[in-house]
User: Which sequence fits this backbone?
């Protein structure tokens, strides 16, 4: 082979590689860099790998005009891809209406630019199955994007997945302008009771079976089908999966939580946008539940409930599962609307440990950094490191520890409701007692915040060993600390418009202020 011919071949190969479709841009070296800089011993988070095979859903008969259901074609492409040993399933530009899609091992679902996948609200497309919701075992409808015990799976590209959640979610009249409320009723039909819109009378009926806020307790199996419209799925639900990548795409308008990996390992979210309407009930951004080895990097959230949430089951079911969420890095993320920017709890009964949050920006979230639980949960939240968070226009607390959480959003609960729980007789410490300890929060700036900081621990299990360092907050009210043992306040500057900058209740012990 002549040297000239060799270079021609090399040039052709390079050009071919440059022109080849890039189905993902996240690199293992970037993930390694993020994990190695964690404040704890973070295991390697392995990215999924895929063979060089492609399966185009249009070749399987998918309609990209938004007229006919594309469910069968998309699922067939996924099934054939995994049967062949894996590869990439391509969703070209266009509009796809579909029912639930099940992702399987060794499949990367790639969405091209200008592709829009909207999940139908036709209840007949969604089976009812045994599930967990808000940390409790129950029944729910099949999640639009789902996977069970799959390995090496990814959703990447540039497209949008829309859960059509406005057809599922109850809606409070108080959260809508009069014109919006009338338009919603006209377009969606449904039924109104106590100034709350329900998609149908069955959804309203299900409320009467709810001992908990959103989980009906039904002993007659035949009734589950009757109340099907109430069993709102999360948009993406992966259970027991390993090596997951979500990259570049937008997830929006979920019937309930948006992204919910549970009991999964090795998860990477990179450059993902998560959106739900601000009024969406249970419209969380991402809920990491009983998972380990997670990286959430350069993502944006604008949602109707907590944005970036760490969870591990609720009360006895969560303790019995006994799988903590651990080894998590959240870096370079922005949150717009949300009940909390970064949140631990309230379902933390299996424990949460080894979590680092850094270089985050929260704009207008109800609370900035939110730690919450209540008696009955049990579980331990520990070894949490927060470094480099800016927040602005926070209508409640910039930093909140609430161990008397009552299930309502920040600012929605009355002083009387909170006082009733706080004045209840303190029980003996048991497996039902939640604990929050060994937490470092540093390099935080906040402006235009209602109350800078509020610690409200349990008298029988105080908040333990929290360090606040290099914090500067301007707020209407200062910092109030209750039921805390082991508090370090180092270079914390709070500019309060009224009252004292710092207020330490007599229940605070072992305080060091520098």
Assistant:
């Amino acid at each position: 082979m002549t040297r000239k011919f060799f270079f021609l071949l090399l040039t052709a190969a390079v050009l071919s590689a440059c022109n080849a479709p890039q189905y993902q841009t996240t690199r293992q070296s970037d993930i390694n860099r993020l994990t190695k800089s964690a404040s704890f011993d973070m295991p390697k988070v392995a990215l999924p790998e895929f063979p060089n095979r492609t399966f185009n859903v249009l070749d399987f008969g998918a309609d990209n005009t938004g007229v006919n259901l594309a469910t069968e074609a998309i699922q067939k492409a996924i099934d054939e891809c995994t049967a062949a040993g894996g590869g990439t399933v391509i969703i070209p530009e266009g509009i796809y209406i579909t029912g639930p899609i099940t992702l399987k091992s060794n499949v990367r679902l790639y969405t091209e630019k200008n592709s829009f996948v909207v999940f139908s609200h036709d209840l007949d497309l969604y089976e009812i199955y045994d599930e967990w919701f808000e940390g409790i075992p129950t029944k729910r409808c099949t999640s639009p994007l789902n996977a069970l015990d799959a390995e090496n799976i990814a959703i990447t590209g540039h497209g949008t997945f829309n859960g059509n959640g406005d057809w599922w979610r109850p809606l409070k009249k108080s959260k809508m302008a009069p014109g919006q409320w009338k338009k919603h009723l006209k377009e969606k039909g449904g039924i109104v009771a106590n100034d709350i819109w329900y998609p149908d009378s069955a959804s309203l009926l299900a409320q009467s079976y709810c001992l908990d806020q959103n989980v009906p307790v039904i002993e007659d199996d035949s009734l589950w089908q009757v109340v099907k419209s109430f069993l709102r799925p999360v948009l993406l639900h992966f259970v027991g999966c390993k090596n997951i990548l979500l990259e570049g795409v937008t997830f929006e308008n979920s019937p309930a939580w948006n992204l919910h990996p549970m009991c999964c390992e090795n998860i990477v979210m990179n450059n993902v946008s998560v959106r739900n309407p601000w009024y969406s009930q249970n419209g969380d951004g991402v809920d990491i539940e009983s998972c380990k080895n997670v990286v959430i990097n350069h993502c944006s959230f604008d949602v109707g409930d907590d944005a970036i949430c760490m969870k591990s089951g609720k009360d006895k079911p969560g303790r019995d599962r006994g799988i903590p969420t651990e080894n998590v890095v959240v870096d370079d993320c922005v949150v717009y609307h949300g009940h909390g920017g970064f949140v631990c709890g309230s379902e933390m009964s299996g424990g949460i440990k080894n979590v680092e949050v850094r270089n985050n920006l929260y704009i207008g979230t109800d609370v900035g950094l939110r730690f919450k639980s209540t008696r009955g949960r049990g579980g331990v939240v520990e070894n949490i490191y927060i470094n480099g968070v800016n927040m602005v226009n926070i209508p409640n607390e910039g930093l909140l520890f609430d161990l008397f959480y009552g299930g309502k959003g920040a600012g929605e609960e009355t002083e009387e409701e909170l006082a009733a729980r706080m004045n209840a007789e303190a029980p003996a410490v048991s497996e039902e007692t939640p604990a929050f300890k060994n937490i470092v929060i540093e390099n935080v700036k906040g402006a235009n915040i209602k109350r800078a900081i509020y610690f409200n621990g349990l008298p029988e299990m105080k908040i333990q060993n929290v360090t606040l360092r290099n914090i500067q907050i301007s707020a209407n009210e200062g910092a109030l600390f209750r039921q805390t043992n082991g508090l370090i306040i180092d270079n914390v500057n709070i500019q309060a418009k009224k009252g004292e900058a710092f207020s330490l209740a007599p229940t605070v012990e072992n305080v060091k202020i520098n």
Notes: The radius of gyration is 24 Å. The chain is about 15% helix and 45% strand. Confidence is low (pLDDT under 50) at residues 5-20.
